[in-house]
Design a protein that fits this description.
Chain lengths: ~90, ~350
C-alpha cells in the first residue's frame, strides 16, 4: 500500500534512529530488529517528525538535491509503513 | 573467520527463576548463582559486543530481576547505545525497580504471560504469579516503556488464543509474541504434555490471522509456527554464527541458547577470551558456517541457502548427529521421528524445571 502525499508519517513509538559505530552506518533500531540506513534513508527519516507530510518531506529533499524525489520518498516511507515502522 | 557481524546478544544473566515453566529454554543442567558472571564481567561483555557490531541486547535469564546489579547493567548497555530488552516474568519488577530502570534509559520490557485462565496459568508456571504479572504490566505501561507480551503456546493454552490476544491488548502491549513451544531441553522433556493437535494449531493460526488485521496499528502480533507442523525446518537464527550470540550465566558463549545440548562440542568462556576472538576464531562458532559440513540431503539441496539445513541442536537431540538434516524437514530420512511425536497420545503431567539440588515442590 502506498502512503498518500498528505499523510503525516511518524516513527513507530518503539523505534529510534542511531548510529552504528561498528558498521559506520546510521541505523533504525526497534525491538528485536534493526534497519541499516544509507544517507538518503537517513535524510528522509530525519524529516519524519510527526508534523511534516510526505509531500513536505519530499519537497524539502527535492530542494536539497535539486530534483523531484517524490516517488522515491513515497516508496521508501510506504515500505517502512508496510513493516509498521512508520505509522 | 567470517565477515558477518552479530546484531543480537542474548545475555542470560542468571538461571535463577521463581517460575518453573515446563518449556523453559534454559538447559536441563541449570547454572547455580555462585557460578554467575560478575557485574564487571557483564559490562565488559556488553562493551565487546557493541564493538563487534551488536545492536540489540536481551537481558534475560532465568529471571533477570533476581540480579541486584540489573540497573547498573542496563545503564551500561544504554551508554553504549544498545537497544535493550528486559525479558522478564514480571516477578520482582516492583514500581521502584521499574522507575530506576526507566531512569537509566532501559527502553523495552517483555513480560511473559502463561494463559488468560488463572488456574491454567499457575499450573503452567508451577507457582502463583498472575497477580504480580498483571501489576508489573501496569507499571511498565504507566512508565512508558516499549512493551511486549510473550506467550509460549502449547496444548493447554492454544484453545484460548483469542482471549490471550485480547488480554495482551487490554494490558496495553505494543507487541505480542505468540511463540509455539520449541522442543529443546525442558520442552523436549515435556514434549508429550505440551504437543498440541494439528486442529488446535490450524484454528489458532486462523484466529491470530484475523486478530493481526483487527489490531493493526495498535498492537503488532507475531506468530511463530511450531516447526513440527511444518514441512521445512526453521533457519537457525539466520544461520549458525551469523547474527546471534548468547552468553550463558557462567560466561559460556554460544551461537544459540540451545547449543550446550550438543554435548560433543565445547564452548569458549567470556572470562577467558574476547567476544571478538570467540566470534572470529573459536572452533564452535565456525563449526556450521557455510555448507562444507553438510551431509545429504542438505548438501545438494537448493533450500540449503534458505534454511541452512535447519537447527543443529534439534538434529543432534533427535538424530544423534549435529551434521544431520534437521528431522523436521520432509526430505530428512528421520522425519518419522517428528511425525511420531506429533501423533503421540498426550501426557498429563509436567516435569517442572528445577535447579540441581533444589527440592522439587509439589
Amino acid at each position: 500500500m502506498t502512503l498518500a502525499l498528505d499523510t503525516v508519517p511518524r516513527l513507530w513509538r518503539l523505534a529510534r534512529l542511531d548510529y552504528d559505530p561498528a558498521r559506520q552506518r546510521p541505523v533504525l533500531l526497534y525491538p528485536e530488529g534493526a534497519v541499516l540506513l544509507n544517507d538518503t534513508g537517513l535524510a528522509i527519516l530525519q524529516l519524519v517528525d510527526g508534523s511534516r507530510s510526505v509531500a513536505e518531506i519530499a519537497a524539502e529533499l527535492g530542494r536539497r538535491y535539486g530534483t523531484d524525489v517524490t516517488a522515491d520518498v513515497t516508496d521508501y516511507l510506504s515500505r517502512l509503513a508496510e513493516r509498521e515502522l512508520i505509522q | 573467520m567470517t565477515t558477518d557481524r552479530p546484531t543480537t546478544l542474548l545475555a542470560e544473566l542468571t538461571h535463577r527463576c521463581p517460575l518453573r515453566c515446563p518449556y523453559c529454554s534454559n538447559p536441563l543442567d541449570l547454572i547455580r548463582a555462585e557460578a554467575e558472571l560478575t557485574t564487571e564481567d557483564w559490562k565488559r561483555v556488553f562493551s565487546q559486543a557493541r564493538a563487534l557490531g551488536v545492536l540489540q541486547l536481551g537481558l534475560s535469564g532465568g529471571e533477570p530481576m533476581v540480579r541486584k546489579d540489573l540497573e547498573e547493567l542496563a545503564a551500561h548497555a544504554r551508554s553504549l547505545g544498545l537497544y535493550t530488552t528486559l525479558v522478564t516474568s514480571g516477578l520482582g519488577l516492583t514500581r521502584q525497580r521499574a522507575e530506576r530502570l526507566r531512569a537509566v534509559g532501559l527502553e523495552h520490557i517483555q513480560i511473559s504471560i502463561q494463559d488468560v485462565d488463572t488456574a491454567s496459568a499457575e499450573r503452567i508456571a508451577g507457582v502463583s504469579s498472575v497477580k504480580q504479572k498483571r501489576a508489573a504490566a501496569a507499571i511498565v505501561r504507566e512508565l512508558g516503556f516499549a512493551f511486549t507480551v510473550n506467550v509460549v503456546l502449547h496444548r493447554a493454552n492454544l484453545d484460548r488464543i483469542g482471549e490471550i490476544i485480547d488480554l495482551a491488548a487490554s494490558l496495553g502491549a505494543d507487541r505480542l509474541e505468540l511463540a509455539n513451544t520449541q522442543y529443546y531441553g525442558w520442552g523436549l522433556e515435556n514434549r508429550a504434555a505440551l504437543m498440541p493437535t494439528r486442529d488446535q494449531v490450524t484454528r489458532a493460526q486462523a484466529i491470530t490471522q484475523e486478530a493481526m488485521t483487527r489490531y493493526r496499528g495498535k498492537m503488532q502480533i507475531l506468530f511463530v509456527l511450531p516447526d513440527y507442523f511444518e514441512q521445512y525446518p526453521k533457519p537457525c537464527y539466520g544461520g549458525w554464527g551469523k547474527l546471534y550470540l548468547v552468553v550463558a550465566p557462567d560466561g559460556k558463549v554460544l551461537p544459540c541458547h540451545g547449543a550446550t545440548q550438543i554435548t560433543t562440542m565445547t564452548w569458549p568462556n567470556a572470562r577467558d577470551h574476547s567476544l571478538e576472538w570467540i566470534w572470529q576464531e573459536s572452533p564452535g562458532f565456525d563449526a556450521f558456517r557455510g555448507d562444507a559440513w553438510m551431509r545429504e540431503p542438505c548438501r545438494s539441496c537448493p533450500r540449503k541457502t534458505v534454511d541452512f539445513g535447519g537447527c543443529r541442536c534439534q538434529a543432534f537431540a533427535l538424530t544423534g548427529a549435529a551434521e544431520n538434516t534437521d528431522p523436521v524437514c520432509i526430505l530428512s530420512p528421520d522425519r518419522g521421528i517428528i511425525d511420531a511425536a506429533v501423533a503421540e497420545p498426550g501426557e498429563v503431567e509436567y516435569r517442572y524445571r528445577i535447579l540441581a539440588g533444589e527440592p522439587q515442590r509439589a
